Amino acid sequence: MWEGRRRGEEWDHVARTLVFTKAGKTIDNNNMKISILQQEVARLQALVDRYKPLRRAKVKPKPNERFVMIPQVMEAKRKAMEAAKREAARPVTLYINHLISEEDQAAQFASWCFEFRFEGLL
Q: Cβ-count burial of 77 within 10 angstroms (0-12 exposed, 13-18 middle, 19+ buried)?
C-alpha cells in the first residue's frame, strides 16, 4: 500500500480509512490494557499496605521507675493493635494512582463544587 504511491497519485480513501481505523483500535486496546493494569497495581498496592507490619508504639515509662515494666509494654501493644484495626476498618476508595479515604473524597468533591448566585437577572 505504501509502496504503491507515486508522484501525483492520491491515497485510496478506503485504504486510508482502514489504516487509521486499525491504528485507532490498536491505540484504544492498548490504553484499555494500561488502565486495567494500573487498577490491578493499585489493588495490589492496597493489599501490600494492609499486610505491612504494625508500627511500633513508644512505651512511656512511669516517672518514678528506672525501667519500663511488662504491663506498660502490653498496654502500648494493645493500643497499637487498636489503632491498626481502626485504620484497617476505615473505608477506602481505590483510584488508579492513589488511595483516598471517604472523608478526603468528600472534601475533594466539595472543593470541586461552586456556588453561583444569579441576582438581578430576572
A: middle
